[in-house]
Design goal:
three-stranded antiparallel beta sheet, alpha/beta, binds flavin mononucleotide, TIM Barrel
């Protein structure tokens, strides 16, 4: 029976149930309560860890307290040391800030060692840090501590490099995804099978040995239909879902929840561009990456020819005045399918159950 299936992912995360529904590390949106509820329901909740690795960084102090809070919420209290009792949640870092190179091993690693999340999710390294081997060194250090390393990629080339660098899980993010992603990416329907084929064909060149790299699909997957489709793309595929942006537990403010709930037709309603980061002043994304968000006022003015400086000025002024109309709402094309606010655990159970019913339905139809 499909519902009893163990998968490569449930072998890595024994608390989870197949197909594993993953709540991505959405910076500013996800938190320990959301992650704990997702994991309690048999999914995998990832707490966003941010990008600033400097010693006094608020990203790291917040991560520390959020991981402790998740431990309390999951009632997994340490026996001898935290080391003995891994937490069934992950911590998700963005690597594109220069402080990754200078501080990851001395600030983030000890914090992770003390808190023992089950997974460490990495995304968006700078090209130089990949080429120099700094990313490989960080992955090796995490693996040496026993962490499952998940790495989000948007191209086959990046997947190849990450597999060579030693990751356990490749999260293949398609261009429908909300938030930041590869500027030159592909949709999950072609990206995932091409990565699965690449891993099978290049096992030797990649030095995989007995190592199995698990493939997860992300981007535009919202409900059981998307999960069932993603599972068909490769035998290891499992999924990320962005309905969690409006989960009861998310930190998403009211105005964003309303925008997400009322938006339909996610293709034209969103835009994939580097310009919105230029307008809101988030210069951590190198040219490899851009972001998908609602095509709101800032974008419409840009598209109508407003100079960048003027757009930035209006953005700042509105922000200062508490006017949310120019704010950026990072969200993917799946936004049109998000229709209600639910507890995170209900989302996990509903999406997983619906995916299994659809897979069974396909089996009996054939
Ligand atoms: C609001 C928001 C914040 C995000 N923040 C992060 C992040 O901090 N780190 C990360 O690796 N991915 C982040 N992502 C991207 C997700 O990891 C994932 O690729 C994406 O949400 C999947 O596509 P979907 O939105 O269509 O479900 C974010 C996405 C959104 C919508």
């Amino acid at each position: 029976m499909v519902h009893q299936t163990r998968s490569k992912l449930t072998a890595l995360f024994p608390h989870a149930q197949h197909p594993v529904i993953i709540s991505a590390p959405m910076l500013g949106t996800a938190n320990s309560t959301l992650a704990a509820e997702v994991s309690k329901a048999g999914g995998l909740g990832i707490i966003p860890a941010g990008f600033d690795f400097t010693p006094s960084s608020t990203h790291l102090t917040t991560l520390d307290s959020e991981l402790s809070a998740a431990r309390t919420k999951l009632n997994i209290l340490p026996t001898v040391s935290k080391y003995d009792d891994p937490l069934p949640v992950g911590a998700g870092f963005i690597l594109s800030h220069p402080s990754f190179l200078t501080h990851f091993l001395t600030t983030a690693l000890p914090l992770l060692r003390a808190n023992r999340p089950a997974a460490v999710w990495l995304f968006a390294p700078r090209a130089d840090d990949v080429a120099s081997g700094a990313v490989r060194t960080a992955i090796a250090a995490l693996k040496a501590e026993g962490f499952v390393v998940m790495f989000q990629v948007g191209t086959v080339a990046a997947a190849r490099q990450a597999a060579r660098d030693g990751v356990d899980v490749l999260v293949c993010q398609g261009v429908d995804a909300g938030g930041h992603q590869f500027a030159g990416g592909a949709g999950v329907v072609s990206l995932v099978p091409e990565v699965v084929d690449m891993l099978a064909q290049e096992r030797e060149e990649l030095g995989l040995g007995e190592r199995e790299v698990v493939v997860v699909a992300a981007g535009g997957i919202v409900d059981g239909r998307g999960v069932a489709a993603a599972l068909a793309l490769g035998k290891f595929s499992c999924v990320c879902v962005v309905q969690f942006t409006v989960a009861e537990e998310a930190w998403t403010p009211e105005f964003r929840r309303n925008l997400i709930l009322e938006t339909r037709d996610g293709g034209p309603a969103t835009v994939k561009t580097p310009v919105l980061d230029d307008i809101q002043g988030t210069p951590i994304w190198s040219g490899i990456y851009d972001g998908r968000a609602l095509a709101g006022k800032s974008w419409q003015d840009h598209a109508a020819g407003m100079p960048l400086e003027e757009n930035r000025r209006l953005f700042k002024e509105a922000d200062k005045a508490g006017d949310t109309s120019r704010k950026i709402t990072w969200v993917g094309t799946g936004v049109g399918l998000v229709k209600r606010i639910q507890p995170a655990a209900d989302i996990v159970r509903e999406v997983r159950g619906d995916a299994l019913r659809r897979i069974r339905g396909l089996q009996s139809a054939s």
